[in-house]
Design a protein that fits this description.
Length: 360
Amino acid sequence: MYKQQIKNLLKVNLNLKPSERLLLFTDDEKDYLVDLMDEFIDVVPEFTHNFSHLVYPSLKVHGTEPPEELWRITFGDEAVDRLISSGTFEKILNKEKYSASEVVSTLKEYSGAVPDAVVAFPYYSTTHTFYRKVLTEHFGARYASMPLFDPSMFLTSMNVNWDEVAKVSRDIAEVLTEGEWVHVHSEDGTDMEFSIKGRKGIADTGLFHQPGEFGNLPAGEAFVAPVENEAFGKLVVLYAPDRQLERPLVFKFINGGVEDIEGFEDYRHFIEEIFKKMPSARFIAEFGVGTNPKASKPDNLLEAEKILGTVHIAIGDNHTFGGVNMVSFHTDYVVFKPTVLIGGKGWEKRLILKGKLQRI
């Protein structure tokens, strides 16, 4: 049903070559993702015969390290066995402290043929994991991450001029790199200030042609990891990652972390349980700006955070893209029709006015 769109993804977004190794994986959270894997398997041989694939049991939480079986398919049995025998692999899966340099050294020494390109479409995200970071930063894999993907997106937010999306995303990423502070407010009641000093803006362009490039599909954002202990104010949450809340929740930030949640909604209990299990999940992790003109679905986080003129603020893990917080949780919350000021020493500019990107 989506074979032509899959071909476009492999050709346009990944620029996949016949000599390259491709890895496909998803989870079993949704039947349509398992069906989509079958469609990929039908199409991929037109591009390369060197590919592997896996469907693994759902992990139920965004940002959790993927299971051992995927590590074995990716890096080989000997490399994973070495990590297990040293006691390191369990620490990686639990996001406990370990020597990243030693892990990379082991993987480089004992890994087999590592993929050149990855299409990751499990319902629960692997973007903010050490697994992804190792593949892109140390093995040069190109990595398309598609958490919460709905195949109908092939016809909307995936059907865009990627060169234009890339240009806007890169321009905003440069501004984020230059900036030191951000102020976000909206008519819904969000009013937050936080520091991005010394942090690098990243463009999610949807074009993964060079070694080590990664991002979402559908793509279309520029994002940065704020300073974890320097966020203050309130964030009004209207949507969980995959549904509209019956009643808004208000996250109150002090010294970078959510200190209090106001409002009565079942999602509040889920978040509070996460905070009990993982206290560092409460800290600000990401600030992003949507740049995709075809994105429109507010109740699907993957697409909602790409809507042109929106911003999103995440809590949880950010150690894989410039931050220092390592935790098995990462979730974004979208602010609609925001006004955003950004500035540094001696300058400030309005980046967005009531949901409209300003000239930069």
